[in-house]
Specification:
- Helices cover 55% and strands 12% of the residues.
- The protein is of the alpha/beta class.
- Helix 3 crosses helix 4.
Length: 371
């Protein structure tokens, strides 16, 4: 009886093992095939995008002090003072194109890609505002751009331009802050909002670890293929920004900037001091974020309360950084003013440039009269 049972069970067991083995091999083959297809989809798409969106500007070496790091810069127009545009966190320098096009009609204006962004090299140096400013200073010198400059910073870029003024005050003639970050903003959030932001940051960190694979295997490209353009952007311009953002160096750089935003970069901004009597215009977004656009779990009431603090306190304090500071509300735009109301940024820059040139002319007239 036992011999008969063993004879009957053994072939059946062998069949099950063979079936399982074949199923596993088939699954592995499907995964490998999907990876090959995904990688090919990404490679082809990336190649097409590279041809469709050629480099704007030119890559400039910062020299041995920065390990041969090359940063991309694009300057247009003629005149003085030269305007330098610094983007918000996660936005390549080319995002300033609508602003640059109009400013170039009345003065010289440059945007640049921070390390890891756009057409710039990635860097192993910590992505704090102070490090970014040192690199920007070296870039402007290597490119031969002459100050003093009008510095324009959007969001996190506001940190950077203020630190630049603290490090190189004689090279800054005036400033425009576009819904710029404030060094006290985290501490002014409610505990619920801070906890929610921490959870969101932790989630983003986990996504960052997967991002290189998601980019390489074409998953991110596939997910973004039907994504509507951001408000104020054409479909073509939105695709260009997406192409530049779907790069591992960009994910790493922007992730580090976020990690070091507070307290490292915030402390550097706090230490930078004020602007004295330099012309300053602060643009503040008046439109609050739609609650439906907030991440899941974000406490809506706390977020709305913080928006009131942002508009009525922190942004006012930024305007008070200079004795010639001025705050202008932009009621029909949310935080992305450079996309939704580039004309407001252009007019703020024009106002600061006019104030500088008028003051310069007055000084020159007084000097000539004294002789």
């Amino acid at each position: 009886m036992s011999t008969e049972t063993a004879t009957n069970v053994s072939p059946r067991s062998g069949k099950v093992k063979r079936f399982v083995t074949r199923a596993v091999l088939a699954l592995v083959a499907l995964i490998v095939l999907a990876a090959i297809v995904g990688a090919s989809y990404q490679a082809i798409g990336n190649s097409r995008d590279a041809q469709r969106f050629p480099q704007q500007g030119n890559a400039v070496s910062l020299g041995p002090e920065f390990g041969g790091l090359k940063l991309n810069i694009d300057c247009q127009g003629q005149g003085s003072p030269t305007v330098v545009l610094d983007s918000g966190l996660g936005v390549p320098g080319v995002g300033w194109e609508p602003v640059q096009k109009e400013v170039a009609k009345f003065t010289r204006v440059c945007w640049y890609d921070r390390a890891g962004y756009g057409w710039s090299d990635g860097s192993s140096a910590p992505r704090t505002s102070l490090q970014i400013v040192k690199e920007l200073h070296a870039l402007l010198a290597a490119e031969g751009e002459k100050g003093p400059f009008v510095l324009v910073g959007h969001s996190f870029g506001g940190y950077n331009v203020r630190v630049y003024n603290g490090q190189y005050p004689n090279e800054v003639a005036g400033m425009v802050l576009v819904d710029a970050s404030h060094e006290d903003q985290v501490s002014r959030m409610s505990q619920n909002l801070q906890d929610s932001m921490k959870k969101m940051t932790q989630s983003l960190k986990r996504q960052e670890k997967l991002a290189p694979w998601m980019i390489h295997l074409g998953i991110m490209r596939f997910m973004q293929r039907n994504q509507p353009p951001a408000t104020g952007l054409s479909k073509e311009f939105s695709h260009e920004l997406a192409y530049l953002q779907m790069q591992t160096k960009f994910v790493e750089a922007s992730g580090q900037e976020m990690d070091l935003f507070s307290p490292e970069s915030a402390s550097q901004v706090r230490a930078a001091g004020n602007l004295g009597a330099k012309p300053l215009v602060v643009l503040t977004a008046g439109k609050n974020v739609n609650p439906s656009d907030l991440p899941p779990g974000m406490p809506i009431k706390d977020f709305q309360d913080f928006h009131e603090i942002w508009v009525n306190d922190l942004q006012v304090k930024e305007a008070n950084l200079s004795t010639r500071g001025k705050r202008i509300m932009v009621p029909d735009s949310d935080h992305m003013i450079p996309f939704q109301r580039p004309d407001a940024v252009v007019e703020a820059i024009r106002e600061v440039c006019t104030a500088i040139n008028t003051g310069k002319a007055s000084t020159e007239t007084a000097s000539a009269a004294s002789h």
